[in-house]
Amino acid sequence: MSAEQWLILVSGIVGGALRVGVPFLFVSLGECLTEKGGRINLGLEGVLVLSAMAAFGASYLSGSPWVGVLAAAAVGALLATLHGLLCALPRVNDIATGIALMLLGMGLAFYLGKPLIQPQAAQLPAIPLGFWSDAPAVRSALQINPLLPLGVLLALAMAWGFTHTRAGLLVRLAGDSAHAARALGYSVPGIRLAATAAGGCIAGLGGASLTLFYPGSWNEGISSGQGLIAVALVIFARWNPLRCVGAALLFGGAGAIGPALQSVGIGWGYHLFNTLPYALTLLILVLSCRPGQIVPGSPTELSSNR
Amino acid sequence: MRDALAAIALPTGAIVAALGVFGLIVSFAGVDPVAVWVLLFKGAFGDAFSWQNTLQRAAPLMLTALCVALPARAGLTVIGGEGALVLGGLACAALAHALPLPANAVGTVLVCAAGALAGGLWIALAGWLRQVRGINETISSLLLAYVAIGLFKHLVEGPLRDPASLNKPSTPALGEGLLIGTIAGSDVHWGLVVGTLACLLAGLWLRFTPSGFSVCVVGGNPRAAQLVGLPATRLIVLACALGGAAAGVAGAIEVAAVHTNANASLIAGYGYAGILVAFIARHQPLAIIPVAILFGGFGAAGSLLQRRLGLPDASVLLLQGIAFVLILASEALRERDWKPLLAALGRFGPSDPVPVVLGTPEAPKGEPR
Predict the structure, then answer these.
(1) How confident is the model over A5-17, as pLDDT tens digits?
(2) What was the pLDDT predicted at B368?
(3) I want to staple A8 with a disulfide (CB 3.0 to 4.6 A). Which of A137, B137, B338, B346 is the partner?
(4) What CATH number does residue B271 fall under?
(5) Are B366 and A111 a contacting pair at CB < 8 A?
(6) Confidence of residue B319 (pLDDT cuts 50, 70, 90)
(7) Mean pLDDT value of segment A247-261
(8) What are phi and psi of A66, to 5 degrees?
């Protein structure tokens, strides 16, 4: 391989990480917040798909992509609220509810989104960070999604909020010891409902970046399980919002290796490279889990620790 | 008796309610809900043709539902059935391609056994990882499903690809003798019989054999299982392996009876629909049979809704989603008295501080089961 091909390959992977990583980032932040409150929401996959559809639809109807972003956040919060309400019922477990909401979200999105498959909606404007380079590969790789800085700021805010604000501490309290929260007179289901709804709102932004930036159109294969993978990502990030940023970018980069290799003419193992993020997570789990112990950093009330 | 009634009445009521909500949604689109209900019934169970279509779809659902139900009886939530199904189909096609098998029933049984082995090992791995490394099986089975699908695509488009398959990469077709035929006098393939038998055998196993009963004890009361010295790890891995084998056979049957080779059409979401079927059947293998037929019927009626009323093809997915949510919500009504439900509804406000006795005995968390 020549130096130019190497440049194309590296910028393809970096650019892919920045493009593909954004939905991962928002979904994992949303999942992180939900799980800090002591609940797992597999339904974020449904949230992601439905909010992606809502973002595209709202942007298409209003002509402004930012209206689409708001619509995605609102729809995400609504669907997650349903998850929170269902989980508060006696004898309803959060894993099953998550799967149900995944089906419901996808069903609603595909049903309502049928008329949106053909048209083009207004897209979010890219931030050109590659202005310093004259190599076209670098320039196109560094067309940044405007939601990415927002996501990084959100991660910083969450990390700070979990340790410095009353709300953040309450969420952690509900996730680590429901008894203690009850003893202080707080409503544990109420806190969890709020955390789940806010998590859905954040994950909705991930849906918006799918249809309004990259891939930038609405179709029924828009998500390849990012919402489900978020659960694994959060374990990988040890429930730390700042590590979620790194984990999401790593996942995005690992997923971009296949397409980047294809762009320099190496087609072998495209699908195998696409499974890298999943295989990597599994490997990390194998290395970081110990039988009879909970994963370090994990909220103790999670159903996966019971 | 009352419990048995509740177990049947609640899901039935939830499905009826789901049909109602679904009718409401389609009426917003200007479609007559009554016409939708009639078509759903007609398309699923209206005549011989629709029955055949329904039963055709029910076969893989029965087997993928077992992939959720059997581990669930051992206390595990496995949601990676799609991966086991895909690998089962791949193993079936690969074995038929690699070895000169006898072109008769023996060969067919062998390729299905290959599917069972591949799927069984895959899900058993998730159970083993949980017991030996403490990794949550819901997440690991899901990750394994994505790895399986990637592996499947890699092999079908690469080493195992039939050069003649141009626009749709697929493996070479199975030989004529290896294909699974239809039950005499119908268009339904023998997979339906396999699925029904598998559910019956699984039910009998859980109910009447020491190992099946031990699995239920391990799932129902891990502490009791520990006290009487049951080999929890072995039993859990066994339940996962049997469930995975069922999903693997589903994949092999889809290849040998429907597609004749392994290609991307195999990844059709049967694994995820199986989760729903198993939950509605409350992980009872015998109850899986009717529930799978019902959901096969919804699937069969879906294309009719599309053709006759112009509804999107995702209508059935939407109906399934609504049904699943309502069925879960109906679980809350299972109590003999309504106090817990009312308590749950009243729990969102701030409560008075309750004194917590220090050292409340709690179940120790994170212990290996």
Answers:
(1) 888 889 889 998 9
(2) 47
(3) A137
(4) 1.10.3470
(5) no
(6) very high
(7) 88
(8) -70, -30
Burial status of residue A149 (CB atoms within 10 A of its CB: 0-12, 13-18, 19 or more): exposed
pLDDT > 50? residue B350: yes
Q: Domain extents for chain A?
A: 3-123+146-305
Q: Residues 180-239, chain B: which have Cβ within 8 Å of A?
A: none
Q: Which of A31, A50, A89, A303 to mutate to test the interface with B (most CBs of B within 10 A)?
A: A89
Given A89, A232, A304, which is nearest B329 (Cβ)?
A: A89
**More confident call, B148 vs A284:** B148
B11, part of any domain: no
Tell whether B268 lies on the interface with A, counting CB pairs under 8 A: no
pTM here is 0.89
Predicted confidence at residue B351, as pLDDT, reads: 62
Query: Contact B328/A293, CB-based, under 8 Å?
Result: no
Secondary structure (3-state) at A143: strand
pLDDT at residue A132 greater than cutoff 80: yes
Q: Is the pLDDT of residue A111 over 90?
A: yes
Tell me if B6 is assigned to some domain.
no
Q: Kindly identify which residue of chain B lies nearest to residue A191, measuring between CA atoms.
A: B348
pLDDT score of B176: 85
Calculate the average pLDDT of chain B. 89
CA distance A98 to chain B (A): 9
Helix, coil or strand: residue A23: helix
Domain A3-123+146-305 classification at class level: mainly alpha
**Residue in A95, A183, A306 closest to B365 by CB:** A306
3-class SS of residue B189: strand
- B residues 20..59 contacting A (CB < 8 A): 25
Query: Residues 61 to 120 of B: which have CB under 8 A from any A CB?
Result: 77, 79
In a domain? residue B64: yes
Residue B335 has pLDDT above 70, yes or no: no
The sign of the torsion formed by the CA atoms of A193, A198, A202, A204 equals: positive
Q: Is B319 touching A (CB cutoff 8 A)?
A: yes
Q: Which residues on A lie below 8 Å from B360 (Cβ)?
A: 179
Rounded distance, CA A13 to CA A1, Å?
16
* Chain A residues within 8 A of B348 when measuring between CB atoms: 88, 187, 189-190, 193
**pLDDT 10s digits, B83-112:** 999 999 999 999 998 888 888 889 999 999
Task: For residue range B187-225, list pLDDT tens digits in order.
Answer: 899 999 999 999 999 999 999 999 999 999 999 999 999
Enumerate residues 273 to 302 of chain B having a beta carbon within 8 A of any beta carbon in chain A: 275-276, 279
Structure confidence at residue A86 (pLDDT): 94
Do residue A268 and residue B158 have CB atoms under 8 angstroms apart? Answer: yes
Of A22, A13, A285, the closest CA to residue A147 belongs to A22
Residue A181 confidence class, pLDDT cut points 50, 70, 90: very high
Alpha-carbon distance B107 to nearest alpha carbon in chain A (angstroms): 31
Distance CA A46, CA A101 (A): 6
Q: Which residue range forms the structural domain that includes residue B230?
A: 32-313
Instruction: Check CB contact under 8 Å for A82 and B328.
Output: no
Question: Does the beta-carbon distance from B279 to A96 stay under 8 Å?
Answer: yes
Torsion of CA A253, A259, A265, A268, to 10 degrees: 90
Query: Encoding tokens for residue B68?
Result: 């959720």
Tell me how many domains chain B contains: 1
Is there a contact between B138 and A306 if contact means CB atoms under 8 Å apart? no
CA distance A128 to chain B (A): 33
Q: Is B317 on the interface with A (CB under 8 A)?
A: yes
Highest mean pLDDT among A25-29, B154-158, B183-187, B322-326: A25-29
Strand partners, A127: A144
Judge whether A196 and A32 are in contact, CB under 8 Å: no
* CA Rg value for chain B: 22
Residue B162 lies in a domain: yes
- Per-residue model confidence as pLDDT tens digits over A81-98: 999 999 988 888 888 899
